[in-house]
Every structure is written in C-alpha cells, then in structure tokens.
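Form 12-C: Joint structure prediction
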Amino acid sequence: MATLEDVARLSGVTKSTVSNVISGKAAVREKTRSRVMAAIDELDYHPNLAARGLKKGKTLLFAVLVPTLQNPFYAKVMDVITQAALDHSYHVILCTTNRDLRLAHQHLQELSSRSIDGLIVMSIGTEFAQMLNSIPKDLPVVIGDWQGETYNVPHLPVIDIDFHTAGLIAANTLLDLGHRRIGVILEQPAHLKRLGGFLSGMTQRHITIPPGLIRAADPTLHSGYTQALELLQNEQRPTAIFATNDLMAIGVLEAATQLGINVPQNLSIIGIDDIEETSYTRIPLTTIALPKVAYGMTLVEHLLHTIEHPERQDANTILMRPRLITRASTGPNL
Amino acid sequence: MATLEDVARLSGVTKSTVSNVISGKAAVREKTRSRVMAAIDELDYHPNLAARGLKKGKTLLFAVLVPTLQNPFYAKVMDVITQAALDHSYHVILCTTNRDLRLAHQHLQELSSRSIDGLIVMSIGTEFAQMLNSIPKDLPVVIGDWQGETYNVPHLPVIDIDFHTAGLIAANTLLDLGHRRIGVILEQPAHLKRLGGFLSGMTQRHITIPPGLIRAADPTLHSGYTQALELLQNEQRPTAIFATNDLMAIGVLEAATQLGINVPQNLSIIGIDDIEETSYTRIPLTTIALPKVAYGMTLVEHLLHTIEHPERQDANTILMRPRLITRASTGPNL
DNA sequence: ATGAAAGCGCTAACAG
DNA sequence: CTGTTAGCGCTTTCAT
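Section 2 - Result
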C-alpha cells in the first residue's frame, strides 16, 4: 500500500501538503493540487484510517451488540444499520451475544482494546444493566429497545419501539370491528409490553379478557399453531385472535385453515412486526408494523450525533411509533 | 484510556519493559513483572489495538461481504462467523451488499482504507469477478459459496456448499420412495446447481421430468404456494414435489392443505436448507440440511490460516456436503 | 534484565 | 501557500 510519504515524494512536495490536499482544510495552489492528485491516482493511494484514527482519536468505526440475527427483526435492522453507517463512511463491527451475559462481556472486553467511536446495544434488559457499567463513560453509547420495565436504569439514551402502543392499536382495531371475545397468543416474557398495551386498550373500553383466552407460546410458527388450535376448539371460541408476533399469527392462520374456519369471516387475526412473510400467506395478514427502517436509521443517527457532540450527551428516550397495516385477515364481527 | 506510558510511569519502568511483560516474548524479572501487572490492573489498562496494528500490520479485524441478512441462511452463517471470530480474538466488520454491485464496490472502496487482515466474500458469481480484481492481491481473501458455473474464475480459495449433491440427494430420496412423476419448484437463477444435481439424479435412473413440471418461483413462501397450486391442479398431478428451498416447500405444504391433499400419503414434499421453521410446520418437512455451522467455521478457519501463512495461499475449492433430514413430509408412492 | 531510540502513517500547529 | 516538527500508542532492534 502506498503511503502519504510515497505520494509526497512522487509529487515533489511534503506530507503536509498532501494532507492539506486531501483534507481540503488549508488552501493549496491549484497547480500543486493537481500534481498531488495525479500522484494519488497513479499510486492508487488510500489513506490509512488506522493511522489517522491514532492521531485524531476517531476511527469511523462503531460496534453493535445484538442478540442474534436469526430473528428477522434484528436481521432487518442490522441491514439498515450497516447501510446507514456506510452512508456516513462508517463501518460496523458486528457482535452477536446470543442473549448470553458472558458472551456480551467477552465482546465488550475485546472491544475495549479497539478504538471504536461508539456502540449500539440492542435489546437488553435490567439483567444487563451491570454490564453497562463496565463501558467506559466517555464512549458514546445508545441503547436500542430497552427491555426493562422503566427507563431510568441506564443514564444513556434509549431508542425504543413503542410496543405498548402496538398492543393498544391491536386492541382498538379489533374492538372497532366489533370483536369482544378475543384470544391472545403471547410470547412470555418478551412481549409483556405488547400485552400491557392490549389489555389497557381493553380496559378503556370496559372489556375483560378471561384468563383462559390468553395463551403463552414460543415465538414460532408451530407454537402459534398449537395454541390457536386449543383456543379455537374451545366451546366458546374467540371471534378474533391477537398474536404478539407475525410468526405466531401465521401459525394461527394455519390452525384456522386446518379447522375449516374462514378468515376473516369467522375469525380475525392480527399480528405484530410486519415480517415479509405476512404479505405472502394465503390470506395476507393484518399486522402492526414495527418501524424497522426508521429505527435502525435513528440508532445510527443518534449515535453519530453523540459522537460529534459529546458535550451534550442527552439521556432521553425516543419512542418509535408502530403503524397498523390492514390486510385481509381482519374483518367485522358478524 | 490509560496508555503503555502511564503503566510504565506508575510501575517505574519503561514502555519496553511493559511491552515485554505483555507480550511475554522477552524475559522479565518476576519482581518487576508483578509490579507492572499491578499497575495494569490499577489503571485498567487495555492495549490500543489500532496502535499495535499500525506497528505490526495486523489488526485482528476482518470484513465479511454478504448479500443480505434477511435470508435466514446468511443470518445463521453470520452468527457463526462472529462467534468463531471472537474465539480467535478477531472482530468482524459487516458489509451487506444487497446483491448490488455498486454497493459492493463502495464497501470495498471504504475497506481499502481500513487495515483489515482479511476478507470473506459470500455468495457472489461471475458478474462480481471483475470486482474481485480491485482487491489488493496481498489481502487474504476467501470466497464463500461461489455462484459461478466453474471454479476456475477467481484464483482464490473457495468454500462452497455442494448444492449439486443436495439436488442429487433430493432426487434419490424421492426415487427410492417410488416416485416417478415429480414436480420441481425452483428459484431462478440462484438454484440452478440444485436443479442440475436433481436432474442428473433423474437421468441416472432414466427418468425424465416433463418441462411443465418444473416451475420458476421467487424464494418466498407465497411463491411456493402459488406454483404448487398450479402443479397440483394439473390433470396429471405429481406425487412428489421438490422445492429448492424450505420457504417454498412450506408454501407447497400450504397449497396441499388448501386442496385437501394428504401429506405424505398423496404427496411427498422435500426442500433444501433446514431452516428452523421446517421442524415447526404442521407436517414437519423432510429437507436437505445445508451445513451452515461447519460452513461458517470453515470460512473463518481458512481465512485465519491464510492470514497466518500468507506464503502458501492455496486456491482450492472445499465442498461442504449437505445431509438428508427425513421428517414427516415424505413417504412411499402408494 | 531493562532502557533508549526509531518508526508504523498520519495530522496539526507553527514558521517561513 | 508550503515545509518543519512533534506526537498519537505501540513494537522492536540495539545498547547497556
């Protein structure tokens, strides 16, 4: 690899001048400028960011801690984050924790030797709070979708998705369609905020959901299917089912198909997330879309902002609002 | 952040001695050693890898170019790669290309300023071959699942998954069960190798598949569903369907359910990939598992090996073998 | 066994 | 406008 020195020698100036040409900070005579540019071209010179980083204390590199990419939500968000980073000439170091505190620590440990400009930590809760203390206080950090009950635990900015509102929207959508007997398929404990929003929507309209209609499930298609079968074979079966994520909602649709129940005539189904598959099922699913793109972009923008203005590191919470997408799986309660 | 200098001062020695303690390369008297260690502890010193990298020319950092994380295959492989990297004290820079040549170029461009130790490029074909030329020849590179027809294009090591064999296994499995009239749902052009293997299996047993039974699809559940509906409403419908990935196979299952066709009694279904969902469908799907974990690990190990022994950079191809997983969706042709 | 000094590639005053 | 100088944090001869 060619260095600044090489370019300087070839164009008959010093490193400083070449540096000036590149940064554009100081004025350079047009003639020398073009000579330098020619040399840069000829040598195919690329500045060494590690060296620059050493000098300036900025590496144009940040890290992202994420539980797993196997959840389509995180996969999509990571795609967005790397893209947004590239747009700002940043690169991202990917660290998957598998929700394992030890792995997370190990990553943080190794990262502490790495001069990164910032860190995004996605989807952790109170049990990780202690870990956050081991992060140097001068490293810009933003938390993505904090899983704790309250937001006052870390004194760090949090970009969250308003899962409570997502649940509320689900409730209102079904209530507005005239449904009163509504089943819920819930991932425990990850989706308790969604359930909270849903139940508060119900309470506002003075509807109570019998406990038997709320069923715990794993966040898989199959688990949604199994739980839905049980709900639907109940003597007093619900006229609508709210699944706290789309994968389970697809399972519900399968169960309905299996039992010969028409959707949406005899059963409305609503999910949360808006994963790609929901538009591709036989009956496209109504769902509450999580703003994955906006979320990823905001994470990056917020982080870069903090990196550039470390003086006013705010520790507020930004709630990204989800949005109803009406498709074919919901209809009026006949 | 504390520096070597700080540690040296606190322990009353020079930087060189501290460096020796850390690297363990030169002998250090036990007494000074422990004094240095104490200082390291007290100051919570972490070596600055950027500085070390500048000096030694090794950053313990490599980059991975991958089309998208939204395909569960890549998501899984990336999880494996980051994990394997961490085990060797490496970190990985994630670059998603979205199969866009321009984006790929942009990433490579930015990466050329980054002193990375190596590069993994996943899932590219001949159209990207030119791009590979713009990679500095002294940068260790390994290609993951090369999409080109032949392997002689890049003079770089290739770790590939033996998709041809995967297709062959599908063919043999169905033939052994007595199926003769077999439909194929194929992603074009990504899965042509799989089709090739399948057809060669058929040819070996002197079975010909009428062109009408091979249907092009997108790699989505819905597309599999649609194409399967058409195949199954044919007057002479197939007794088995081979879908070139699991998502489409799930769609086939849905179509069968919809038409009241029993699986596997009246229709066998086989897919490729072994994504998580295939074990969770109503009828768990028989599939040909791609060795994602072994694949990811091999990529990393091969890369690190090349980094450590740049002198004998081999340019061979390693084919990772897929493996049949028999579940409930296949049965004898009655 | 430890220290002194040079240098990896770059930027940032400061001089001229 | 351009050159000189110093130094970011580390490793590595080479002396001592």
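Section 3 - Comments
Residues 292-308 of chain A form the longest helix (17 residues). Chain A has three domains: 4-47, 55-162+292-321, 163-290.
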